[in-house]
Amino acid sequence: MNTSKTKKSVQLSIGGIALVAVITLLVSMFAIERIDSGQTGIIVNLAGSERGVDDAKVETGWVFYNRFTKQLFEYPAFAQIVDYEPFDIQDKKGTIFKTDPTIEYYIERENAKIVFLRYRKTTFELEQSVILTEVKNAYKDIAGLYETDSLINNRPAFEKEVENLLKERLSQRGFTFSNIQSSVKPNDVLQAAIDAKNTAVQNALKVENEKKAAIAEAEKVVAAAKGKADANRILQESITPELIQLKAVEKWDGKLPLSTSGNTLPFLELKK
């Protein structure tokens, strides 16, 4: 009797464990995930005759799939900003410059399946392989069209050409390119030469300005001296015997001297 009960209890325990195992397996097999509104979901068949991207187009919302036979990939439908490490480019003469681009891109919903079928990569993998390659090639191809001085003096125009080329090439690969920002810097040797040239130009301008200031000051002094000399000359020419006698009369207090020599009155000289 006890043996029968024990046997039944064991069977029930085994059945319970099996049920739990089945439930656990089912739970682990299937997944329910929510695709955000800014993402495009792609369901991929991992096995069977339909291996590859499922024909059913997945947009946003909740999705249910078998983890063992399918995989969910998500591509952003909004702008992604990627800041790349600096890399070297060369101009027409082989002069090396360094650039550090930051780009913005996204994948249109209708292109998400095409991009995945073509590359089978995640967003990060795409950014570090396909997109990075196109970015480097665009910079190198455009830089090769510029002379050194032209590239230094026309950086905004250079970047605009890179942007247009990159937009065209990424579009052909299924990506929508929206913006790029970067700095283009000469190598250390060239930068030192540019700095030395700028310093020399600044020093030359300083010397030229000092020279102009000295000339202006000298001309000012000469003008002042000339004015003083002219004034003295005019004054000298204006002093006549009659003027001298007039000035003496103006200063006379009306008193005659106690003694005079001859018959001449003081300060008066009659014309004959």
Question: Short summary of the structure?
Answer:
The chain is an alpha+beta fold. Helix content is 53%, strand content 20%. Helix 4 packs across helix 6.
Task: Provide an overview of this structure.
- With 272 residues, this protein is an alpha+beta fold.
- It folds into three domains: 13-76, no CATH class; 80-186, Tetrahydropterin Synthase, Chain A (2-Layer Sandwich), CATH 3.30.479; 201-254.
- The protein has helices at 2-29, 109-119, 123-128, 130-143, 148-153, 155-172, 188-238, 241-251; strands at residues 30-35, 39-45, 52-53, 61-66, 70-76, 80-83, 87-90, 96-99, 102-106, 176-181, 184-186.
- The strands form four sheets. A three-stranded antiparallel β-sheet has the order 3-2-5. A three-stranded antiparallel β-sheet has the order 6-9-10. The protein has a three-stranded antiparallel β-sheet with strand order 7-8-11.
- β7 and β8 form a beta hairpin.
- α4 (130-143) packs across α6.
- It is rod-shaped and about 165 Å long.
- The protein starts with a helix and ends in a 21-residue tail after the last helix.
Helical content (DSSP H or I, runs of 4+): 40-55%
The CATH topology assignment of the largest domain is Tetrahydropterin Synthase, Chain A
Rough shape?
rod-shaped
Q: For the record, give the distance between the C-alpha atoms at the N and C termini, rounded to a whole number.
A: 183 Å
Task: Count every helix, treating DSSP H or I runs of 4 or more residues as helices.
Answer: 8
For the record, the CATH class of the largest domain is Alpha Beta
CATH superfamily grouping of the largest domain? Band 7 domain
Derived from helix and strand composition plus strand pairing, the structural class reads alpha+beta
Please state roughly what percent of the residues sit in beta strands, choosing from under 5%, 5-15%, 15-25%, 25-35%, 35-45% or over 45%: 15-25%
Q: What composes the largest sheet?
A: 3 strands, antiparallel
Counted beta strands: 11
What would CATH call the architecture of the largest domain?
Answer: 2-Layer Sandwich
Strand order of the largest sheet: 3-2-5
**Residue-averaged pLDDT, rounded?**
75
Q: What is the chain-wise order of helices and strands?
A: HEEEEEEEEEHHHHHEEHH
